């Protein structure tokens, strides 16, 4: 699988205030241990399958990250930045309580499963009235080799508090499941980790960093409770609102009776949906078109694969027709 | 983004006011037959009938349109019901041994049924066990001031009515009777429970008390003395007086009935006659018997049961007997109870019964006893919707009078109404005005029939029944003749009722219906891929149906259909009575169930889809236009069909019968069982809380979080189809288009070349693929609709050309609304780009089950009207969104989320009402519109000598029968100044 970190993805990551970026390195399996900061080393402990989990504490946005990687590159034989693909990030560290963690999972349109299970459970909360036991939703299991497990950011028995900015309190297990599946291409879950030892300790540098960040301004300080109103504004969830660009193929003038598969040519760069993954709360209207262009290409490619498998001969013929008559319109 | 700003608008007071004028949620009326009836009562004075059910519902019916529904607070079976004659009061006994008094609320113009009192017979500590005080039988005296309760322990207790005060000192205990019983009859045994209590027809102080063991006592209430003893020695089932009070009749568990003379002697040993009508072999018990005198001489005897145990023990029969005339009414479901409608005037000499009303488990049957041959009287309500299981439903709002008349005429031809017999239960007055618009509800059934119902008003009336089975060759055709020949002369059975749950062939089942209300063209599609196009005709006709086969797989290879065969059509001309005549049969190959169908009568096109693809057919030229496979190459399940693991069709049929029966049973239990399970869950949750989080993990209910992938099974299922005259290719030329949406989030848009009317026979229709949209989130596409330049839905075919609707705005740019299970999106046309969207699942965690576009008219102004997207989710709640802005307007809880068949059966009307099945036999009607509400509005003249002002305060009003919402009463009607039930705009 080609691991192209989409160029358009980078600026959008910059928009995030401060991010801890576990990065999956599939091209070569060397450790990037030096790059990981001290307080992030705890995540390496949690990582199970991927020995090469690299935890970056980003201060200056992604260009900084890139620079850091390049610095390390020569002695450690780390692959080029384009060989890295962001698979998850911790976001909004500055606005969440230290006991909570907001994790974004990047699926990149791959077939790799998100890979976790949730269950009902009882959550103990301290309220002004005393200790209260409330129904909650918890992670019950991680699928071996799944995305969730490979991030090391989600663990069994972590309580799910929000899905894409929407409070899950009062929602049934099936509702939470549906919300997660519906947001699966850009899933942001806020959890209260069962293991509270590895929490990010909010340093003065980190909190200072939040100024000038579009995301943290957009988000409001208290994480849950504010989204109780269903139809209210929910900043994080809407950050990705232009992301699910649908694929539209116009195929005018095709003769009737010809079943024309919506197969595009194979040159379309695949897996460049990194752009999709990041919120662009401020520059949304401006970057709308270019951003979603890459999205739909990504979806196109994912669509592509099975069609090729099924009827290769037809695929090539309709590729022809696509070049002639069709043009891909994206949103 | 703009959207965020709009969403915060929620608190704009002006908008809130408009919303209140537009939207209001009410569950208004229930159509159909009550599920699992368990008790029946009749008030001859008010001519009202009451039915109680196993779930505790109480329904009172009078003249068509007069109905009251309520529900006991307890979900317990109603075992008996009795009217307080003429008072509009009803007494019910539940199987938890509680008595409840109901009152028809006639004041203030708001009809309703209220519980005004309840009573539970107290057990006597140290004297009788609780089962001894279990009420077995109730006698409400004609004067309505005294209630007698017979108990399991053999005692009779007396209550003052209507206050339900126990007259403690009056109680008649077992021993009191035993004193008068001769020694040789006692044999040291008890008399058993009280089985029957009957008031003497002439002397109100006397009553018959029948004990289970067989002893019958004539007891004088005022002197508290035993007047007569009738020493029966057969186990007693029921008692009935003859009108004069000189004789009475008793029925027994051995299938016999006996007549006893009431003489002056203290004890009578032998009955005057004793008959076992279906003897001499052992018979089942006669559960109930009535004896009615007639002017013509011979008395009329009606009894239920008593059939020969071995040969007909499984039949559900009521026998009507008069001298030499005897008919054994043979029903398809269990007999619950029956009553006769006869003269109750005490001055009259004879009973002269005019009708017999039998309540069965699945239907209500009325027999005309005055007409020779005792024919049945068609019921104007309580239609057995489920006479064959409902497989789909379809509603047409605002039916033009022309089509209405033709459908009614076709129905009359099918079952000419008896000219002189009126419906005998005709109490109360229906105050609702004639509905201004006719609504037609079409139900598709498992046996291949489509039934047309008049859904304009409160009572759902059958109009016409269309059968599609007769155009196919089915196994069961030739069996009918044999069955009838095998029937013996004795007993003189007569099949009565229309409840017939057994389907000839499951492939006949109707899946989808479409009707053009202006042209009368109907398309009906079924389980075996059959698509029938029909035309409405007033003439009888015998013709050959055009048959076409469309291969929806096209040339896809590597797939084999392992499901059922297609239906074999009959060859040669088939004759049809006046009504809908099929003229074209399109059979999809492979013959999978049709999942979507639509019709455009102006273009003469019908489009249909299955799990494999969709097709377009020109029914004027009888030629296929388009076939398109939507299968995903990885999807193997779709190919095998639903019956793939079944070897023979016969076996498959048997299995499907079993399935039907099973689903029927589970469907019934649904209502009752679900609440205990939720209680269990609650209890579990509590336990879990007490035990702490560790114990919760013992039984983890897990849900896997996986994004949908392209190779989900059945991704190729065509979920919706729609025709529209819009801009697909460029912004200047509009033309006919067809849209199809699939389970995997694909939308196909075809531009159609439809020749003008004059050239229709010369040119053929052509379809060119214009656009394909793959929704990123891949959720099933539930509905597609095209909106005009002003954002209004396009009118239906013919509406513009016949000046019935405003022409759509063709100047502004059109847009297409695509509703998937997860999101609603509006795209611009012709360049498809997203305009607005609402991600329901991502926000709420619920999935879209049904959507419809409806227009909502304001209550305060007929002028003001808004379009809304009505959406029912898998949680059973209903959301309304504005169109095309897709802003959430209102949300109501409607159906319980566990009620999957209720959610699946929901249909919406164009004016913001809806129907869903609350049981296999009942539709609940609800309204989302504040203006269009169809609910009963009626009055009953009652005569209540005993004011019950003191009673009223004690019991809170409970006026609901199903679901969570209390029916809002007509308070808002009055504020409008007119008492009009059908407030159509």
Write structural notes for this entry.
The complex is a heterodimer of chains A (331) and B (985). With 331 residues, chain A is α+β, with helices and mostly antiparallel strands. Helices cover 31% and strands 21% of the residues of chain A. In chain A, the strands form 3 sheets. In chain A, strands 4, 5, 6, 7, 8, 9 and 10 form a 7-stranded antiparallel β-sheet that branches. Chain A has a 3-stranded antiparallel β-sheet with strand order 2-1-3. The relative contact order of chain A is 0.16. Chain B is mainly beta and 985 residues long. Chain B is 12% helix and 40% strand. Chain B has 14 helices and 64 strands. In chain B, the strands form 16 sheets. A 5-stranded mixed β-sheet of chain B has the order 14-15-16-17-21, with no helix packed on it. In chain B, strand 34 (449-454) and strand 35 form a beta hairpin. The longest helix of chain B has 43 residues, at 649-691. Chain B is elongated and about 100 Å long. The interface between A and B is large, with 78 and 69 residues. Strand 6 of chain A pairs antiparallel with strand 48 of chain B, so a sheet runs across the interface.
Describe the main β-sheet of chain A briefly.
7 strands, antiparallel
Q: What is the oligomer described by this structure?
A: heterodimer
Rg estimate of chain B, integer Å: 32 Å
How many alpha or pi helices of chain A? 11
Percent range of helical residues of chain B: 10-25%
Q: Give the overall pLDDT of chain A as a whole number.
A: 56
Strand elements of chain B, count: 64
List unreliable stretches of 5+ residues of chain B. Answer: 1-9, 478-486, 643-648, 661-678, 691-698, 948-985
Q: What distance lies between the first and last C-alpha atoms of chain B, to the nearest angstrom?
A: 38 Å
Distance between the termini of chain A: 26 Å
Number of strands of chain A: 12
Into which percentage range does the β-strand content of chain B fall?
35-45%
Give the rounded overall mean pLDDT of chain B.
83
Shape of chain A: globular
Largest sheet of chain B: 5 strands, mixed
Structural class of chain A: alpha+beta
Estimated share of beta-strand residues of chain A: 15-25%
